[in-house]
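Project standup — Tuesday

K.O.: blocked on the structure for the chain from last sprint. Re-posting the sequence here as requested.
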Amino acid sequence: MMDVNKQVTRYTDWYGDGATGESPTSQQWQNILGRPDDKPVTLINFFKLREVADYGDGESDLTGEEAFAKYAEVSIPTMERVGGRFLFVGPHQGSFLGNDEDWDLIAIGTYPDLNAFKELYADEEYRKVFHHRSAACADQKVIVCGE
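H.V.: unblocked you, prediction finished:
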């Protein structure tokens, strides 16, 4: 089994340092990868989509929604292949309690264990489409839950 620090280095090499909020920071990777391997992992994702996708080159003919769909075309079947599944995917409809937040989409995904989660993020095809998620999102927040 690979040391957690080596895993963190691998994932930050693949996804970036998280400085812009488009990927986890090293500390966030450390927190999730340091969890017990045999416990379920559930992620609550909040997405605010851009009107026009931003691929960093200043030019895009895709909306944020279209770019996110390109990401989902690969991410959903890959997640299912590694053993994960979505408990809920749908539009944000406001807050019931606490501060109001402005999100477009909420997705709650669960993995049977940490290894399934790591397998998704290590998957080469998933890594190839992750930039569509980054281009699509003006803002995102992911909360980790589990045992």
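K.O.: great, moving the ticket to review. The chain has two domains: 1-34, 37-146. The longest strand covers residues 137-146.
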